[in-house]
């Protein structure tokens, strides 16, 4: 079942303009090998944005220096921060497949902040400070650099920024989660 776009109607394939068609065809023939869904489906109303988002998403998802478990942990951290149901639903299963523990998934889902793995804790603290305070303390920055290096800190910042944009796009469009997919509980 496809997601329902309650505020922004899907771009109809038969009605696409030439720019939309070019971007759509590139997504079908690229690594995604699928039509645009979620935030990319929303962005198809502005094909240049959809194209740029797709390119950045490909770098961060398919060419990341982060192991899949940590990449998905960062994505779920962003999804939980923004209470983005669709982002969470799209990545909870991916995180599980990537080897993220059930304990870490449940902790994030419940809005917790303590993780057993030091690399997960470093990512969580960095993302949380950046998203909530708009800055990262020197201690948290140095911990991330100590674990992932300077290039890793830069990539992590890009990953957090990208998935924050994705969450905001999804939340603004009010894209609903298909039945049967995992949902975030309301915050208490």
Detailed description of the structure:
This protein is mainly alpha-helical and 188 residues long. The chain folds into two domains: 13-62; 68-173, Up-down Bundle (AhpD-like). Helices cover 64% and strands 0% of the residues. The chain starts with 17 loop residues before the first helix and ends in a 15-residue tail after the last helix.
Low-confidence stretches: none
**What would the CATH topology of the largest domain be?**
AhpD-like
Tell me which CATH architecture of the largest domain applies here: Up-down Bundle
N-to-C span? 30 Å
Computed Rg: 17 Å
Shape descriptor: globular
Query: Strand-residue fraction?
Result: under 5%
- What count of helical segments does DSSP give? 8
Task: Look at the structure and give the CATH class of the largest domain.
Answer: Mainly Alpha
What's the domain count? Answer: 2
CATH superfamily of the largest domain: AhpD-like
How confident is the prediction overall: mean pLDDT? 93
């Amino acid at each position: 079942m496809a997601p329902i776009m309650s505020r922004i109607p899907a771009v109809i394939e038969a009605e696409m303009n030439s720019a939309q068609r070019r971007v759509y065809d590139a997504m079908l023939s690229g690594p995604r090998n699928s039509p645009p869904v979620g935030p990319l489906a929303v962005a198809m109303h502005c094909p240049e944005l959809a194209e740029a988002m797709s390119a950045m998403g490909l770098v961060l998802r398919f060419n990341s220096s982060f192991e899949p478990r940590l990449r998905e942990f960062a994505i779920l951290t962003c999804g939980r921060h923004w209470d983005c149901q669709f982002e969470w639903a799209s990545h909870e299963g991916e995180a599980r497949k990537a080897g993220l523990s059930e304990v870490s998934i449940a902790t994030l889902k419940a809005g917790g902040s303590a993780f057993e793995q030091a690399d997960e804790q470093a990512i969580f603290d960095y993302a949380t400070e950046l998203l909530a305070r708009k800055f990262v303390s020197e201690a948290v920055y140095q911990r991330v650099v100590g674990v992932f290096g300077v290039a890793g800190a830069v990539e992590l910042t890009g990953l957090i920024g990208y998935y924050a944009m994705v969450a905001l796009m999804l939340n603004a469009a009010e894209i609903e989660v298909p039945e049967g997919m995992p949902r975030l509980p309301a915050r208490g």
